Amino acid sequence: xxxxxxxxxxxxxxxxxxxxxxxxxxxxxxxxxxxxxxxxxxxxxxxxxxxxxxxxxxxxxxxxxxxxxxxxxxxxxxxxxxxxxxxxxxxxxxxxxxxxxxxxxxxxxxxxxxxxxxxxxxxxxxxxxxxxxxxxxxxxxxxxxxxxxxxxxxxxxxxxxxxxxxxxxxxxxxxxxxxxxxxxxxxxxxxxxxxxxxxxxxxxxxxxxxxxxxxxxxxxxxxxxxxxxxxxxxxxxxxxxxxxxxxxxxxxxxxxxxxxxxxxxxxxxxxxxxx
Length: 275
Prior knowledge:
- By secondary structure, this protein is α/β, with parallel strands linked by helices.
- The protein has two domains: 4-103 and 199-274, D-Maltodextrin-Binding Protein, domain 2 (3-Layer(aba) Sandwich), CATH 3.40.190; 107-191, 3-Layer(aba) Sandwich (D-Maltodextrin-Binding Protein, domain 2).
- Helices cover 31% and strands 25% of the residues.
- It has helices at residues 13-29, 43-46, 65-73, 116-119, 131-140, 153-162, 173-179, 213-219, 225-241, and strands at 4-9, 34-39, 78-82, 94-98, 107-111, 125-127, 145-147, 168-172, 188-191, 204-209, 249-256, 259-268, 271-274.
- Helix 1 links the parallel strand 1 and strand 2.
């Protein structure tokens, strides 16, 4: 009988696509292993009324707490997270067992108008629930109006296509790529390099129990040291600033010629601070 590894994941379309990709990668690396996917609903999935810009006491671990509880109870062996959603401080007894190669970390403007951010008309309404994205949009286009929008990626894309009052939304390019052809006809997608991504955006973090040497061994085949080096540097900025995943901080680290280079921007009351 094959050994079994149970991956926990949120139930959104994107989370399932990510978990299934990890399952397939593990199966390819370890043909002797059976990998199952278990859906666990998080507070962020249940509470669509929560304002992500001001989540209050629910803020920390909004999309991760129930997955971590399942890990600690032993009902799953590993949890697949979008790394940008994972708080910097992990609960005692849990570790990141693997960080696979990163997908495109960019933000993309999905719009009814071609030309990305510069193609939006004056006063256009852009939907986002990210304080980072809202701050960056106001920085580069003070005339734009940002409005909150929650829901999984396909739902938000349909809302954009159907609502004449919304001109654009900003989404992670990695999420669009992982979901495949989900952008409705008539919408335009443009990568926007001026919008520095959230720390860890485009990367996955696979969390497991620190003492679970079997799972750590299976996950090692998926780990990318260069990606891990970059995202740890980005997340260190969050730790230094004391911010959480919802902090208005954009950061992108890259390795060029063996050296790590990082660009970051943080929005303080007095204005943006570039690093």
